[in-house]
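Lab notebook, design round three. We kept the backbone fixed and only want residue identities now. Task for the bench partner: fill in a sequence for the structure below.
Input structure tokens:
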């Protein structure tokens, strides 16, 4: 039954119809779970602040010497780092010399629930990469292939300003879907889609009530 069909009880419903979580298939092995993280948005953002208090945002340098427009940090047993030597997962935050902050309690069950929605049971991420986009920031088309575990999916949670996510195929040239991801949307790709190319177009200016002029993205991965 839809929330609006509940009659006067609708006032008590958690979501209006537009906000109710729902699954949109993207292709074999890939789904968008619309609004999947909506109910946890405030807690997720508080948790992100706690992580960045210990492991501050930074603009990593690509092996080619470019400064990434997206600011990043990580939590969990492994964090993703990039520098002139290459891309890798590392248990130590190179900026602090200390382990990455632990994954906040609520991250794991959310990542697991999302993976299950896409048919990937038993997901045990050991890395959560956190991205911050300000207007103009983007992520060029790439594959996530620094993880040793090819069986686990990638789970990506979007918060704050909307972004256009490009989702292609196994080669760079494959046709790309353009999907607008809004606050609370979760994308999962694994199995036949695990190494599909993807990216984020330059963020448009705007203001979100919870994040201001930013988009925050969490990606959960099994790296080891
Ligand atoms: C990523 O590709 O690692 C992040 C994607 C996103 O920010 O939506
Ligand atoms: Fe990626």
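Proposed sequence:
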């Amino acid at each position: 039954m839809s929330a609006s069909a509940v009659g006067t009880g609708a006032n008590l419903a958690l979501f209006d119809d537009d906000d109710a979580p729902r699954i949109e298939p993207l292709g074999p092995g890939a789904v968008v779970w619309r609004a999947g993280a909506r109910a946890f948005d405030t807690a997720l953002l508080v948790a992100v602040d706690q992580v960045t208090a210990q492991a501050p945002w930074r603009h990593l340098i690509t092996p080619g010497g470019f400064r990434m427009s997206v600011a990043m940090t990580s939590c969990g047993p492994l964090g993703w780092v990039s520098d002139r030597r290459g891309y890798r997962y590392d248990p130590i935050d190179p900026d602090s010399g200390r382990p990455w902050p632990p994954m906040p309690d609520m991250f794991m069950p959310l990542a697991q629930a999302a993976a299950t929605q896409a048919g990937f049971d038993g997901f045990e991420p050991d890395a959560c990469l956190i991205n911050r986009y300000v207007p103009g920031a983007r992520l060029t088309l790439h594959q996530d292939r620094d993880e040793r575990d090819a069986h686990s999916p990638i789970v990506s949670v979007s918060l704050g300003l909307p972004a256009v996510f490009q989702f292609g195929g196994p080669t760079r040239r494959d046709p790309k879907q353009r999907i607008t991801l809004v606050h609370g949307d979760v994308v999962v790709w694994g199995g036949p889609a695990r190494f599909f190319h993807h990216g984020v177009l330059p963020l448009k200016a705007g203001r979100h009530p919870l994040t201001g002029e930013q988009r925050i993205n969490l990606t959960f991965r099994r790296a080891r």
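Keep this in mind before ordering anything: The helical segments are 41-54, 107-117.
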